[in-house]
Amino acid sequence: MLILAFDTATDVAASALVDDGEVLGERFSRAVTLLEDVDALLRQAGAHPSDLAALAVGTGPGSFTGTRIGLAVARGLALARELPAAGVSTLDALAAGADGAVAVIDARRGEVFVAGPAVVRPEALPFEPGTTCVGDGALRYRDVLEARGLVVPPSDDERHRVRARFHALLADDFGSADEILPLYVRAPDAQQMRA
User: Fold this and answer.
1) DSSP H/E element including 164
2) Does 167 lie in the same domain as 120?
3) How many Å apart are CA 145 and CA 60, to the nearest integer?
4) Which of 60, 157, 180, 184 is the most buried (most CB within 10 A)?
5) Which residue segment(s) compose the domain that 59 sits in?
6) Average pLDDT, stretch 163-170?
7) Residue 151: which CATH number?
8) For helices 64-81 and 34-45, what crossing angle results, to 10°?
9) What is the pTM of this model?
10) What does the DSSP assignment read for 19-39?
11) What pLDDT is stored for residue 190 in this prediction?
């Protein structure tokens, strides 16, 4: 089954084309170039949009705008190609690519997203010393985490990247893209500013 997977919830958008578990291509860029990346992946694999069997999209938590871009693209492609889609937590996909580590995504405003999903201050993470933390939140707050005895791999370690290949492998409940809901965890900045 040929699955197009992508996640735009973090600063680095990831997309992948996976056929029965085999990764045919993977790209990293920005959310605003997602459709260009999709086109490049299909061309690289010698595939056509009509060859796609399903979509797997990251649902966050992460950037409000980035998450919305990914879901909008998934809904548009699903509608245009009549494709089933599945939502996959960005935290789950990040953790799947880092065996034994916990995912920590930068939530801005001095906070991080972690499994639950929950948003917490980095100094309040509920992890035991020696726990390995991966993701852009772990990188941003390396000093705070390491001071608490947590382990953060080197900045160039691949485990810090959200890889769309894991979205395709974790996706299992395919249905209407319109039913996929984002994992925001907290209200958008604009809504908080109005309050």
Assistant:
1) helix 164-170
2) no
3) 22
4) 60
5) 2-91+161-194
6) 96
7) 3.30.420.40
8) 50
9) 0.93
10) ETTEEEEEEEE-GGGHHHHHH
11) 63
